[in-house]
């Protein structure tokens, strides 16, 4: 009995139901596949974010270590600068003292020369 496109009239309703069930199963498989793909995409995104987070943590640790080294170098440089300033000030003070002594000695020498010249005239 091949009428109505190969369907028997008594099975026509059952075939329509089975076609609808097949479409429903097909949609379920399709949605399940899409769901699995979405889960894989989310997992890959999460893995990428975790890796990026680790990279950021490593960069932060490197920056902190570099900052500590820079602070140590700065403290050493400041100490050297303070020593240099103190040394310069001390040398300037000593130079001023030596200049004062030189002036006194010159004045004494001038006095002695003038006294010596006066004694020679007499």
Structure in words:
This protein is mainly alpha-helical and about 120 residues long. It has one helix at about 10-120. The model has no long low-confidence stretch (mean pLDDT about 85).
Ordered list of secondary-structure elements with their pairings:
Layout: H1 12-121
Summarize the structure.
This protein is mainly alpha-helical and 122 residues long.
Entry keywords:
single chain, 122 residues, mainly alpha, 1 helix, rod-shaped
Rounded radius of gyration (Å)? 51 Å
> pLDDT average, as an integer?
85
Strand content: under 5%
> Given the C-alpha coordinates, what overall shape results?
rod-shaped
- How many helices? The count is 1
- The unreliable regions are none
Q: What proportion of the residues is helical, as a percent range?
A: over 70%
Number of DSSP E strands:
0
């Amino acid at each position: 009995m091949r009428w109505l496109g190969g369907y028997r009239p008594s099975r026509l309703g059952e075939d329509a139901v089975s076609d609808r069930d097949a479409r429903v199963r097909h949609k379920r498989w399709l949605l399940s596949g899409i769901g699995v793909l979405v889960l894989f995409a989310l997992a890959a995104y999460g893995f990428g974010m975790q890796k990026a987070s680790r990279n950021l943590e490593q960069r932060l640790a490197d920056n902190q270590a570099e900052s500590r080294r820079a602070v140590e170098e700065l403290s050493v440089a400041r100490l050297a600068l303070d020593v240099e300033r103190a040394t310069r000030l001390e040398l300037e003070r000593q130079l001023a003292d030596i200049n004062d002594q030189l002036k006194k000695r010159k004045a004494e020498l001038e006095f002695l020369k003038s006294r010596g010249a006066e004694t020679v005239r007499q």
